[in-house]
Amino acid sequence: MRRSGGGALVAGLAVLMLSGQAVRAESVTLMQAYTRMMTAGIETGIIDADLAASAEGVKQAKGQRLPRVQLSLQYDQIQQEVISSDNETYAEGSSQYPKVTFNFSVRQPIYDAVRFRALPLARAQDAVRQADAEVARNRIVRDMIVAYFEVAQAQMRIRRAQAIIDGRADYVRSVEEDVAAGRREADVLIRAQGDSFAAESDRMEAEIGLAEALAGLQRYAGLDVTGVALDGARLGVVDLANIDRSMTEAALLSMSPDLQSARAAADVGKRQIASARGALQPTVDLVLDFEHQTTEGSLFGGGSKTQTVTGGAMLTVPIYEGGIRKSRVREAEAGLRAADLKVQQTERAVLARYKALIGAARATAARSGKLSSQLRLSEESVAAAQEQFDAGRASEGVLLEQRLRRDTLRLDVQSARLQQFRVQAELYALFGALDMKAISAQAGS
Predict the structure, then answer these.
(1) What's the count of helices (H) and strands (E) in the chain, helices before strands?
(2) In 391-444, which residue ranges form alpha helices assigned H by DSSP?
(3) Where in 20-93 does DSSP place strands (E)?
(4) Do the Cβ atoms of 226 and 27 come closer than 8 Å?
(5) Cα torsion angle, 150, 152, 154, 160, sign
(6) CA distance 107 to 286
């Protein structure tokens, strides 16, 4: 009663701390967690909104080449007073009258380096947004997969702790019988009971670890998720040879989403320099103006209506604006240098991460292989211990110890394979090649 009550209390408090309210318990597969995240994830909504804003920026840049059409209507109330005049007829006097001016103008740019280079710049900026969105999506999916496998490993630790508890309970019972029959000393029973209490403590610690791991997964899959539906016995095998063959450094340098984003940012830097230099060049516009003016009356005569049509070309040459234009060129050039250095920095970071993950993949594969070999030997030991026990040449305690070792090794093998899948998923994410269906099927969930 103390064991089950303590474990339930820890797990219950952890769930309450994570959710703040009662939630419906549910275990999810890897694909279900992914679907939940993509359906209701805030992160993906932010990415989509940012891409929509970027698309509008491209539309605005396209409009820079189109004519500017403007319509204006102006109403003026004019008061005139004669101060002095050579004409004796208008030597003195005053009048008030309204004037209405209607103007329609068209400006068509013929040459404007800043406007004409706005579209390539906007497209380059959109490419950066697209690359950044891919980096963000890749990161979100990777983090969700990692969180999923962390929960799976936490559940595996609980199962392992429970297997030890059950095995120790059987062992304590066997020792109690031996002590009662005088075949063992009491101190053996005390040590066995101490091991049982230690196993209880390990399970409670594992339950706390599960609650912490769930907090990471619930961020993506929802607060009602209380576990993962993963069958450790159905776990596939990570093909390390295929990883070594297909995931090379050369492939990484061409496929890495982080590198593609950094390179796209460097291309924007080049476009910004071209745009800044364009501000130093003259502009040419075609101009067409139509003006209609109505005057109701004035001090010097009656009302009038006039129409004026003006057409021509306007050349504008920048002379001096306080050094602002040249300063913007230097600013853009400095930005490009920073972007080029960022490409080099990202390349180093990506390659370092690649080497670390490749090393981890080999290490986890080796560990999984050694544990599998130990499991085969342990199964043989259990069979031998069973024969000796049946023949009366070994105690039940020996058989129970061999069974416990076999059961824990089975879980250790599954946990090692989970670690392999986690490393593999992080490698796929580094290459921008995450395939949820393949990973989910391989992980047996």
Answers:
(1) 12, 6
(2) 396-431, 436-442
(3) 26-28, 68-81
(4) yes
(5) negative
(6) 6
CA 159 to chain centre: 32
Distance from C-alpha of 414 to C-alpha of 407, rounded to nearest angstrom: 11
Q: How many CB atoms lie within 10 A of CB 99?
A: 17
Q: Please, what's the b/e burial string for 223-248 (b: 16 or more CB within 10 A of its CB; e: otherwise)?
A: bebbbbebebeebeebebeebeeebe
Dihedral sign for Cα 390, 394, 400, 404, please: negative
In order of their start, the domains of the chain are 2-12+28-66+112-281+318-442 (1.20.1600.10), 67-111+282-317 (2.20.200)
Token pair for 59: 């539309």
Say how far apart CA 357 and CA 376 lie, in whole Å. Answer: 28
What is d(CA 46, CA 216) in angstroms, rounded to the nearest whole number? 19
Q: Which residue has the tokens 């101490």?
A: 194
Mean pLDDT of 159-186: 83
Query: What separation in angstroms does the CA of 195 have from each of 101, 149, 164, 198, 262?
Result: 99, 29, 9, 5, 55
* pLDDT reading at 21 higher than 50: no
Q: Is 306 helix (H, G, I), strand (E, B) or coil?
A: strand
Q: Concatenated DSSP letters for 194-253?
A: HHHHHHHHHHHHHHHHHHHHHHHHHHHH-TTEEEE---GGG-----HHHHHHHS-HHHHH
Structure tokens at 57: 């920026």
d(CA 214, CA 289): 69
Q: Which helix (H) or strand (E) holds 94?
A: strand 94-111
Q: Which residues on neighbouring strands pair with residue 225, listed in sequence order?
A: 26
- What digits encode the pLDDT tens for the residues 44-94? 888 889 999 999 999 999 999 999 999 999 999 888 776 766 656 555 667
For 268-279, write each residue's pLDDT tens digit.
Answer: 999 999 999 999
The candidate with the shortest Cα–Cα distance to 425, out of 152, 128, 26, is 152
Is the pTM higher than 0.70? Answer: yes
Please give the Cα distance from 195 to 164 (Å, whole number): 9
Q: C-alpha distances in angstroms, 33 versus 115, 265, 276, 385, 416?
A: 47, 33, 47, 44, 22
